[in-house]
Amino acid sequence: MGSVWRTLKRLWQQIGKMPSSNGKDQGQGAIAVSPSLAGNLGYLKKALGASEDLISRELSLGGRRLAVIYLETMVNRDALQRDILHPLVRLQEKPNGGEANLILRLCKSLAVGDIKAEKEFTRLISGLLDGAAVLMVDGYDLALLLSAEGWEKRPVEEPGTEAALRGPREGFTENLSTNISLIRRRLRTRELRFEAIHLGRRTHTRVVIAYLEGLTLPGILAELRRRLQRIDIDGVLESGYIEELIEEAPFSPFPQVDRTERPDRVTADLLQGRVAILTDGTPFALIIPGNLIAQMQAPDDYYERWPLSIGIRLFRFLGIFIALLLPAIYVAFTTYHQEMLPTPLAIAIASQREAVPYPAVVEALIMQIVFEILIEAGIRLPRVIGPAISIVGALVIGEAAVRASLMSAAMVIVISATAISSFIIPSVGLNEAIRMLRLPLILLAGALGLLGIFAGLFTTLIHLASLRNFGVLYMSPLAPFTWRGQKDVVVRVPWWAMLWRPRTIGRRDLQREKPGQHPQVRAVNRQPGEELETGMSRGGAKMIRGRKKGRPAVGRGQKRP
Q1: So what's the pLDDT on residue 324?
Q2: What digits encode the pLDDT tens for the residues 242-265?
Q3: What angle separates helix 386-403 from helix 360-380, to the nearest 10 degrees?
């Protein structure tokens, strides 16, 4: 009953604050609800074009006509019948009192969680398109928006682009409410905030900003709100629309906004002071400010023991250098710097390339382009035949090209190693950027050799060091270099040593955990004759200590010689 009276009180306050239908406070171009039920129904049907899924259920209550309007493809039919239509059918008594009493009585009789009183058709139509039901009563110049949302949605499944070896298997879905609940379940704190905004003049896509109050810098939030509010576009169908409209360097090949399908990664980034952007209709969440180092890290790094995570990260950084530089280095060595190769290797490569009719740079470009076409074809093909066609196509094309002397076997090996190394990068966006940068590096290597590779690398590093994202440097904590930030870059120190959050992002509350949590082995006081936790008696432990000192073992009841 308490929640019912609170709802009625809030509704009464809304009604009291409503402007009059004859006043000038309705807003520019806003059309007010009229007391005529027939006129209101006619306007709604005209505004929505008499759509096939627009349903109007008319009832009679105490001598007054009322109607429930909804889009049957956007509502939960069971909830609509149970919580709205059945209570209205059972309510037969004629209400007493003024106009507002009937509205309050209807609200008290309906078992609906969210009820809003509206006097503008613009808000009523937006509510209908969002899945709400509209209740109108003849003779009243206001209508009620009743929460009845419900549509088909995909269940929570494991993400397809970010496989998890250890950790939660849940991934975001296309339903925004489900995605918010996945984050709320992991962050049960009152500092968690969700701010909603609608983008798209025709799609009215719901976009939610998620952050932790007290950790996120106010400047980042203010700048993000400003960039989102200035977006004026017909529709937003996926988070990629928002990503392109809020990034600072649109011509940079590197992704400046992180994206993920994993709720655990979003939760970890929120705990560091970052901000997540959830978009209705897509399972991909955006995370700002973007960071190059964060895109080289995977959630599994923090679930495994820290010595293993260090080894995995070292291989990952080695893989990114192989994916970016190996074809260019091969072209430079075989074209300009043969003296830098061991003599047997140089002779073997020269013998393989003897029958190839074009230089190494053309050979590398052709192989790289063919490989990219195979990747794109494998993505677009049906899942049943896609992997088989990709594998068979690569094997057949590679073997046939070598036999026909169109390619050398060494080039096939180089491109294969490059392809395998590129898929070690956790971020899909960074992986695509590395693949695209590989082509200009091959051209520079073919034109200038190692000098061209160094020029391309230095240009790329200068570009990365100059990138900023919402006031945060893209290469931090490497540029500028901070010692405290190196605990979670190439290596990951144990959790008991990661006392501080990243200084460039979480400056409001730097301390992450309480110091002094290093595991320590303490001696356990035991009574005489009591066995150890391992099941070994005091006498057995004494025998082992005697063996370590080089003395013969002595059993119980025996004397040491």
Answers
A1: 93
A2: 999 999 888 999 999 999 999 999
A3: 160
* Residue 217 counted as domain residue: yes
* Statement: the pTM of the whole predicted model exceeds 0.85: no
Domain that holds residue 364: 308-473
The Cα 320–Cα 371 span in angstroms is: 17
Report the mean per-residue pLDDT for the chain: 81
Higher pLDDT, 297 or 106: 297
- Give the whole-angstrom CA distance, residue 311 versus residue 319: 12
Alpha-carbon distance of 450 to 331, in angstroms, equals: 9
312 within 8 A of 275, measured Cβ to Cβ: no
How high is the pLDDT of residue 416?
A: 86
Residue 127 shares a structural domain with residue 271: no
Question: Which of left, alpha, beta for 168 (phi over 0: left; psi -120 to 50: alpha)?
Answer: beta
C-alpha 45/C-alpha 394 separation (Å) is 57
Across the range 148-162, mean pLDDT stands at 82
Strand-pairing partners, residue 57, are 68
- Distance separating alpha carbons of residues 75 and 131, to the nearest angstrom: 5
First to last CA, the chain: 87
Q: Return the closest-CA partner of residue 414 out of 364, 448, 343.
A: 364
Residue 494, in any domain of the structure = no
156 falls within a domain: no
- 122/69 same-domain check: yes
Residue 131 to residue 148: CA distance in whole angstroms = 6
Q: Are residues 282 and 194 in the same domain?
A: yes
Query: If you write DSSP's letter for every residue of 14-82 in order, what string do you get?
Result: HHHHPPPTTSSTT-TT--BPPS-HHHHHHHHHHHTTS-TTEEEEEEEETTEEEEEEEETTTB-HHHHII
Q: What are the structure tokens assigned to 523, written together? A: 């001696």
**Sheet containing 143-146: which strands, arranged edge to edge?**
54-61, 64-71, 133-137, 143-146, 115-118
